[in-house]
């Protein structure tokens, strides 16, 4: 590996880390944002739904922009917008300013998520081995840091802008400096029988299984992030303090699973790792649904972190393999279903919990994540398809750094 690739990988990893911290700082302080602006309980879901909807718009726009602008450039300038929008949400004085900040956050985060994963997939292709999970692992690490800083801000009753400003002041310039070393990969040669075809276009029928897997994975993820505390407290009878633990456990196990996941993909292939992740996640939901008490419930949430953590990174990587001549367009389109799952997950579990039971509601994401087993072959690598050996680096695919390297 050349120094260009090493610097490109490190700088992209820092971008994932920064986004993990930024996103966690927003979502973990939603109650404080609601109080600051006097957003009613009836209006809050509108604000929350607007962010992923606009992020989907941003992702669709990115698919068109990357035809003329390098993903590295889009990432370089969308990340500061996301961070400044976060600061704006914490420092605004009225609801209109909050709406503008969240709108900017949503549009920019769609472009950021899509371009980050485009660069990750192209770097993985150039390396010739699985590294995609490592990027999402540092995203989880950033999320843990952001959630911890949010806890400090809430514990010390700090104003939102006071909590956000030091993070933005440190991470924003660091991300801008690091962006000098982003590496744009060239499109891979289109192999015979590749889904992209000779024209290198995206065939949505072929991409659809991955879109479903992405949606179901995020339904599971949003179930944990939005309902774990309430479930432990109201259904399993835990204390309020203990009810805050499952999401932290989930984030830590997500970090651990992603940290070791690339080694599993290199050793056994993507298909077995994805199948194992889906089964472990389904077992986790089953344990949560049937748990007799809070501690058993936390075992279930631990399993969920270990299982769900591999699905999203491998889905992006699989899209790049299926459409080697149009991986950027495939990833931008696939990224939309990240937000679809986020939008569906929390209301779905809430509606089922109210109409039926929250234990029963946990079985629905369990069934959905098991659908991944049906589509597991969509994750096959070249070595899976043709047998034996690991993919070697494509030296012809080594792109230029965004600063001209």
Give me the secondary-structure topology.
Blueprint: H1 3-27, H2 30-37, H3 44-65, H4 71-91, H5 95-127, H6 132-155, H7 160-178, H8 204-235, H9 240-243, H10 245-268, H11 270-290, H12 294-308, H13 311-322, H14 327-355, H15 358-370, H16 382-386
| Low-confidence sequence ranges | 386-405
Structural class: mainly alpha
Strand content: under 5%
* Amino- and carboxy-terminal Cα gap: 15 Å
Membrane topology: Multi-pass membrane protein
Domain Major facilitator superfamily (MFS) profile: 207-405
Region (Disordered): 385-405
Pfam families: MFS_1
Keywords:
single chain, 405 residues, mainly alpha, 16 helices, 76% helix, disordered C terminus
Report on the architecture of this protein.
- The protein has 405 residues and is mostly helical.
- The protein has 16 helices and no strands.
- Helix 8 runs antiparallel to helix 15 (358-370) and helix 13 (311-322) packs antiparallel against helix 14.
- The protein starts with a helix and ends in a 19-residue tail after the last helix.
- 54% of the residues are buried.
- Mean pLDDT is 89; it is low at 386-405.
